[in-house]
Design a protein that fits this description.
The protein is built from 4 helices and 4 strands, in the order E-H-H-E-E-H-E-H. The protein has 97 residues and is of the alpha+beta class. The longest helix is centred in the N-terminal third of the chain and has 13 residues.
């Protein structure tokens, strides 16, 4: 299922992760693991934030993705099913039948 992962990283924890080199390592490991079709990074809620859109094959993947962010960056995470335009078109066509 196409899923959006939103990661909001606590400022002090992410500052420390930048200083010790862990932030880029955590991001790279996550990207390598989930192979997102898109990823964006920006400031939100006064914090470093990232959004990645990826295919989640099974909900059991969540702990392996989430725990590095929780444990090392004191991050808040959201996993949200999402649709692209083709998915929306298909869903609306089914509703119209």
């Amino acid at each position: 299922m196409r899923t959006m992962l939103k990661v909001v990283m606590e400022v002090n924890a992410s500052n420390e992760a930048i200083k010790n080199g862990r932030l880029p390592e955590i991001i790279k490991a996550t990207v390598d693991k989930i192979k997102p079709e898109a990823s964006y990074f920006f400031a939100s809620e006064g914090c470093r934030t990232g959004i990645m859109i990826f295919d989640m094959k099974d909900p059991s993947e969540i702990p392996g993705i989430a725990e590095p962010f929780f444990m090392e960056l004191n991050a808040k995470l959201e996993f949200q099913p999402v649709m692209n335009q083709d998915d929306l078109k298909k869903g609306l066509a089914a509703v119209m039948k």
